[in-house]
Design a protein that fits this description.
single chain, globular, 7-stranded mixed beta sheet, alpha+beta, binds adenosine-5'-triphosphate
Length: about 525
């Protein structure tokens, strides 16, 4: 199966098993907007809890906030979003399709990288044991040629992005002979800037109304509350403010399912530090955040850092944590050193002081900020992609199983009476009642037990508990484990402790060493 087919299957699975539906589907959906179903919302909530606890509970110097989506319009002038939150777009005149110019070029570079890796893999196969990969990369004329081609374009691209040189971006697209995937032609328009913010009106009449924006990031709600939180919480620098909430961007190219949406959710933490210490904190947060991802156990080799070629208008250092999605390594989280850009600008635009008095140095200053910013929906897709497993079984059958870390699984336990009689449903219901205050538990009596196991595998339930004739005699049940499919006989009294041990977040938190 190609990666593309795999991704299609994953998207279909999300819909079939109640994880994600297209928004307002009965009206044929709305571009790049999605709804989360009964299992999706549980997984999403569990991801949010994992993030929130790791920030707010496990750090004494980080507190939470829940700011409004609507903010005073001046916020977005101060933050630079009105003038600079743009994407360069280009249209193909034949297909009339619109693309992000930067994404077209990045995809072209990724293809060259793929070519290089294929060359290396081919040589590895050819030379076997004696293959010296480093030497091959350094000496193979074919590899060298591709590397040089990529590097030349990469340098031009980075310069064009940093200088906002739209004509040069177009020229790169022409020089690389990039064609529209739909029409196959290279009949491109000029490159134009496109602002990504949604606007709406506040006020009862259009005349007296104010144009306001739907926030494109949650961070500004934190900045404008910086002093409220610092003073009322008596916070001392360094300290952080964490927030989870919706953000809105009018993305030009909406594709790849919940990877790029127009309405999405962010988990952002702004860490306020003494000026001059920001690089040290930036490095520290890079490591802390990478450890958070890796603790989920999806394989360290599937994550990488990617430093930005173009720094956003507010940043002096930025890196992304990328995950190997079925469509390649892509950003899940950004870690940015935002300097004092935001607080200083809010000070300028509002006329209110944004300074902090540092009792240790006796100085007042506008703090510097290191931000960690992760999309809930992208994280959701990351977890889904990593967990989705198409498994061939020994008896020739196959099954789709979602191998979630147990703490994130939407349902922890399914309780199944073997048959719908002889007191088994009642006993099963008793078990549900015993567990439901602490865990998300479902009761299922329809179809054969084998079919019910498969349905639970498909939503990633770690435990299936079957009540049978023996249960009524000795108070034991069969517990079937999702990943190994092993079954064991367990006393009902032990069930709670067993589920607790496996599904607790504590296991994950301990790996973080916080
Ligand atoms: P990209 O380059 O993919 O457009 P970005 O660099 O603009 O992303 P940031 O502004 O750094 O993204 O936002 C922080 C995080 O928010 C991203 O790492 C991503 O997880 C999430 N995010 C941003 N835009 C979207 C979107 N349109 N849909 C879903 N998640 C998003």
């Amino acid at each position: 199966m190609t990666q593309e087919e795999l991704f299609k299957k994953l998207v279909a699975h999300c819909k079939e098993y109640g994880f994600v539906f297209p928004s307002s589907e009965i009206y044929d959906g709305l571009g790049a907007v999605y709804d989360y179903g009964q299992n999706g919302v549980e997984l999403k909530n569990n991801i949010k809890r994992y993030w929130w606890d790791s920030m707010v509970k496990l750090h004494e110097n980080i507190v939470g906030l829940d700011a409004a989506i609507f903010m005073h319009p001046k916020t977005w002038e101060a933050s630079g979003h009105v003038s600079a939150f743009n994407d360069p777009l280009i249209d193909n005149k034949d297909s009339k399709k619109r693309y992000r110019a930067d994404v077209l070029i990045e995809d072209w570079m990724a293809k060259i990288d793929e070519k290089i890796e294929k060359e290396v893999a081919k040589a590895k196969k050819r030379f076997g044991e004696s293959f010296d990969e480093e030497k091959f990369r350094a000496t193979s004329p074919r590899v060298q040629e591709e590397v040089a081609k990529r590097e030349a374009v990469h340098t031009r691209f980075a310069n064009a992005m940093n200088d906002n040189d739209l004509a040069e971006l177009r020229q790169i697209i022409l020089d690389c002979e990039i064609a529209c995937p739909i029409s196959g032609t290279r009949n491109w328009t000029e490159v134009r800037q496109f602002n990504l913010m949604f606007s709406t009106q506040m006020g009862s009449t259009a005349e007296g109304a104010n144009t306001i924006y739907l926030r494109p990031e949650t961070a500004q709600g934190i900045f404008v509350n910086f002093l409220n939180v610092q003073k009322t919480g008596r916070m001392k620098i360094p300290f952080g403010i964490a927030q989870i909430g919706k953000a809105f961007r009018n993305e030009i190219v909406a594709r790849q399912f919940v990877f790029r949406m127009r309405e999405f959710e962010q988990m952002e933490m702004q860490f306020f530090v003494r000026p001059g210490t920001e690089m040290q904190w930036w490095n520290e947060w890079k490591n802390t955040r990478m450890a958070w991802h890796r603790a989920l156990g999806f394989g360290d080799e599937n994550y990488q850092f990617h430093d930005h070629d173009k720094l956003a208008h507010y940043a002096n250092a930025a890196t992304d944590i990328e995950y190997k999605f079925p469509f390649g390594f892509k950003e899940v989280e950004g870690i940015h050193s935002r300097t004092d850009f935001d607080l200083s600008n809010h000070q300028k635009f509002s006329g209110k002081k944004m300074t902090y008095f540092d009792p240790e140095t006796g100085e007042s200053y506008v703090p510097y900020v290191v931000e960690t910013s992760i999309g809930v929906d992208r994280m959701f897709l990351q977890v889904m992609s990593a967990a989705y497993t198409d498994e061939k079984l020994e008896n020739g059958d196959s099954r789709i199983v979602l191998k979630f870390p147990a703490a994130l699984a939407p349902v922890k336990v399914a309780v199944l009476p073997l048959v719908k009689k002889d007191g088994m449903p009642e006993k099963a219901q008793e078990i549900v009642n015993q567990l439901k205050y602490d865990f998300n538990v479902v009761y299922e009596e329809k179809d054969s037990v084998g079919k019910r196991y498969r349905r639970q595998d498909a939503i990633g339930t770690p435990f299936c508990v079957t009540v049978d004739g023996q249960t009524l005699e000795d108070n034991t049940v069969t517990v079937r484990h999702r990943d190994t499919m092993e079954q064991e006989r367990v006393s009902i009294d032990r069930l709670h402790a067993m589920v607790e041990e496996e599904c607790s977040y504590r296991k994950l938190y301990k790996k973080l060493n916080l």
